[in-house]
Write a structure and sequence with these properties.
This protein is an alpha/beta fold and 457 residues long. Strands 5, 6, 7, 8, 9, 10, 11 and 14 form an eight-stranded mixed β-sheet that branches. A four-stranded antiparallel β-sheet has the order 2-3-1-4, covered by helices on one side. A two-stranded antiparallel sheet has the order 12-13. Bound molecules: S-adenosylmethionine.
């Protein structure tokens, strides 16, 4: 069979070893995207052209395979760690442990014969001078896993971190906050995320766009006033109207923010934590605004610029710190402010599965303090009669009500305004501040917290 270059694959062993390199970096604190990028930039000898890759590095097919191996391991890392603790008499070096984890994740949820996976893992160890001496250890532990798989998995599943694949402090926090629904929330958080789009309904109706989608061979379902969840992801360039800006990628829960702000043509608006611009571009689809998009991260702010360009929109991009308005604010008040604050990202963990392993319990308090500080710093910039929407993509209570309560105590002039939204036409209007990850008939969104504050005239 002739394969096109993009379909050429390195040996599975090479892919396992590169995925293990990414996992090792993740264990040392890197994010999954950064860890994958670094690991794939140095693919190693096995990924040479002779092994089915381009001279420049891994083929697209192998890159996708490495991403899949690493991401499946991250979603099963609690279980893999618990299994390793039983299989290993003493912990091996981090590189060997990472290779064992990526291989166990493949064996727990097999997509090919176990013997192939184990043989390739051993080959991967033998091919690496740093791992070669441990090939016998890896062979023995993996073969023991295969012999005792059911008993071992059943035994470690008694441990919460292995059962749920979340750190124990995370499980405890969700259980305490949502005593009735904590298991459903953790299960949702472990699901593969859907591709959800925002349709610019000012340009095309949802029905008309869905019909164009079906002509392009795709199907989807409406999960919000402007939100469509695809039944199966498509490359973005194949989405009808992508190039013309008819659709953008955005979760249905995130799509609540811009309409809540109730903008009108000509308003001066601050999007205080703007990158990569999902909510900035949504606001600009709803009205013609004098909008300042602020973010301290220049590279991320450049992505706001790219998104504005694709959609043919304009905004002032400002590199700056929301905690220090004196450094960038020109003194003109804003009628609307969106504070989509940096947070633990505990509500979008289905999209960023690595976040759970990089956060620490103390992060909740650290973010909470910074969020309250940010509200205090931006409040003076809001015009009388103006509205400020505070949002986070978190399900941890510390980043929601207590932040607002603290702010209200120190700002007696602030009004807490009601929130009203509906995901579907005819659905009862909702007034809760906290959304948790949910999927089902006509409903699919990540976890968010929203609170609206108003300044009296
Ligand atoms: C949750 S993301 C924003 C997502 C964005 N609103 C969207 O809808 O696409 C939080 C953003 O806050 C930015 N950020 C972090 N610290 C900040 C600060 N001190 N001032 C302003 N933005 C900050 C981060 O760089 C990040 O881009």
């Amino acid at each position: 069979m002739t394969r096109r270059p993009g379909e050429q694959r390195a040996a599975l062993g090479a892919e396992l070893r590169i995925a293990a390199g990414a996992l090792e970096r993740l264990a040392a604190g890197a994010s999954l995207p950064a860890a994958l990028e670094a690991a794939m930039a140095r693919p190693g000898r096995d990924a040479s052209p002779g092994a089915g890759t381009h001279a420049a590095g891994l083929s697209p097919a192998s890159r996708a395979a490495v991403r899949d191996i690493a991401s499946r391991t991250v979603r099963a890392w609690g279980l893999c760690r618990a299994l390793s603790a039983r299989l290993n008499q003493r912990p091996p070096a981090p590189a060997m442990l990472a290779l064992q984890h990526v291989t166990l994740a493949q064996l727990i949820d097999p997509v090919r014969p176990d013997a192939t996976t184990v043989d390739q893992a051993i080959e991967a160890a033998k091919a690496d001078p740093d791992l070669r001496h441990g090939a016998g250890f890896l062979n023995a532990t993996l073969r023991r896993f295969l012999r005792e798989r059911d008993a071992l998995v059943a035994a470690v599943r008694e441990e919460p971190a292995a059962r749920w694949n979340f750190p124990e402090w995370w499980i405890d926090t969700v259980r305490e906050a949502y005593p009735e629904s904590w298991q459903a929330i953790l299960e949702e958080s472990n699901r593969e995320p859907p591709l959800t789009l925002r349709v610019n309904t000012g340009l095309v109706s949802i029905e008309a766009w869905l019909s164009r989608l079906s002509q392009a061979g795709g199907t989807g379902v409406q999960v919000g006033p402007q939100a469509v969840r695809l039944d199966a992801a498509l490359p973005l360039e194949r989405l009808p109207g992508w190039a013309e800006g008819l659709v953008s990628v955005q979760d249905a829960g995130a799509q609540l923010a811009a309409p809540l702000l109730d903008v009108a043509d000509g308003m001066r608006v601050l999007d205080a934590c703007a990158a990569p611009g999902g909510k900035t571009t949504h606001l600009l689809e709803l009205a013609t605004l004098d909008l300042v998009a602020l973010d301290p991260d220049e590279a991320r702010l450049a992505r706001v610029g790219d998104n504005l360009a694709r959609l043919g929109q304009r905004a002032s991009l400002v590199v700056g710190d929301a905690l220090r308005p004196a450094e960038w604010h020109d003194g003109q008040a804003f009628e609307r402010i969106l504070v989509d604050a940096p947070c633990t990202a505990s509500g979008i963990v289905r999209r960023q599965p690595d976040v759970r392993w990089r956060r620490r319990r103390r992060d909740m308090a650290t973010f909470s303090d910074r969020q309250a500080e940010m509200l205090g710093a931006l409040w003076p910039l809001l015009a009388p009669g103006g509205k400020l929407l505070y949002s986070t993509c978190s399900v941890f209570p510390a980043e929601g009500e207590p932040v607002i309560a603290r702010f209200m105590r120190s700002h007696p002039d602030a009004l807490r305004l009601p929130l009203v939204w509906a995901f579907a036409p005819g659905e009862g209007r909702e007034a809760v501040s906290q959304l948790v990850p949910t999927s089902g008939a006509g409903r699919d969104h990540d976890g968010f917290y929203y609170a609206m504050l108003g300044k009296p005239d």
